[in-house]
Specification:
- The structure is a single chain.
- Strand 6 and strand 7 form a beta hairpin.
- The protein is of the alpha+beta class and 320 residues long.
- The strands form three sheets. Strands 4, 6, 7, 9, 10 and 11 form a six-stranded mixed beta sheet that branches. Strands 3-5-8 form a three-stranded antiparallel beta sheet, with no helix packed on it.
- Helix content is 25%, strand content 22%.
Length: 320
């Protein structure tokens, strides 16, 4: 698998120059350890010349990917799977030709703020259409291999604007989320996609045998959301917001655990054990917080004495 993947990625970089830098001959990054979950994916991508380090000794696995870079990768993958080539003309700005190709082939239908970091939800939306339905040249279609029923991804309700794309990639084994405060398979859709995650996704997109198999058939059984939280917009220097969730099902008392997430750090703000099936959080936010943190998010984990468990949507607080 690794040899075929390296050959495929090497062919892509020869034509496409995805990151416009020279490939590293070996994995000698001080910030990527053999015990890291993404080590093998970074090794494959670097060996194939698709991704390189920020320096000769650092890969920067936690750095974000921009929308322009995401669309470039998706366009190259689609063209390679369709024609065997990833050759594009040089445009101004540099991403122009990739954007045009992506629009013409149904990968995207709108423009993004190209130099901003891509969210996981938007990245998954773009990549859910990066492989054509009948691919060639070593690619495998995004066919379902996992049982992920509607509504079972803990923080992606079917009302989420990118739900179809996110569920498609979960079902195809391209992504499987992460464990957040004990909740498995969380997507964290409004957070940014990182270079470590991109390496893993490229591996699974390029080689069907690398895709992850799992099932969410029983996830959250016994609980469903009756009220959920949504994004808030901070228009004043400081503001106070109220977030409310509601559930039904399960048995016994309900436990509501409210969390605030600053980038990748989550802190439990409040834990309430009650017989009521709804709960609220009042939270004050000052615009100066955003001088230090790129994003502030709120979510709630709800569980019952019977063992049922569900996680609310993740609400972003957005300064304006």
């Amino acid at each position: 698998m690794k040899k075929r993947l390296i050959s495929l990625l090497a062919a892509m970089v020869i034509f496409c120059g995805i990151f416009a830098v020279t490939a590293s001959a070996s994995l000698a990054f001080t910030d990527v350890k053999t015990t890291d979950w993404f080590y093998a994916d970074v090794e494959n991508a670097v060996s194939g010349g698709l991704i390189v380090g920020k320096t000769a000794t650092t890969y920067a696995p936690n750095d974000n990917l921009t929308y322009a870079e995401a669309v470039k990768l998706a366009a190259c993958i689609h063209k390679k799977a369709s024609t065997g080539s990833t050759e594009f003309a040089i445009g101004k700005p540099w991403y122009t030709e990739y954007v045009g190709y992506a629009k013409a082939n149904g990968i995207i239908s709108k423009d993004y703020d190209w130099n901003k970091p891509a969210t996981r939800a938007d990245f998954m939306d773009i990549f859910s259409r990066a492989i054509p339905s009948n691919p060639g040249y070593g690619f495998t279609a995004l066919e379902p291999i996992n049982n992920v029923p509607d509504g079972k991804i803990p923080d992606v309700a079917m009302t989420h604007p990118q739900a179809d794309a996110i569920y498609r990639l979960y079902r195809a084994g391209i992504v499987m989320g992460s464990t957040v405060n004990g909740v498995e398979y969380a997507c964290r859709p409004s957070t940014n996609i990182r270079r470590s995650e991109v390496a893993a996704i490229l591996t699974r997109m390029s080689d069907g045998s690398a895709r992850k198999k799992f099932s969410l058939a029983g996830a959250g059984d016994g609980l469903t959301m009756t009220a959920d939280i949504t994004d808030k917009y901070l228009t004043k220097q400081a503001d106070t917001f109220e977030f409310t969730v509601g559930v039904k099902g399960g048995s016994g008392k309900y436990t509501f655990e409210w969390y605030v997430s600053f980038d990748s750090l989550s802190i439990c703000l409040k834990k309430n054990v009650t017989e009521k099936n709804s709960d609220s959080l009042v939270y004050s936010i000052d615009k100066t917080y955003f001088n230090e943190y790129k994003e502030i998010e709120i979510y709630c984990v709800i569980y019952t004495e019977s063992g049922a468990r569900i996680t609310s949507s993740v609400a972003s607080v957005i300064p304006q």
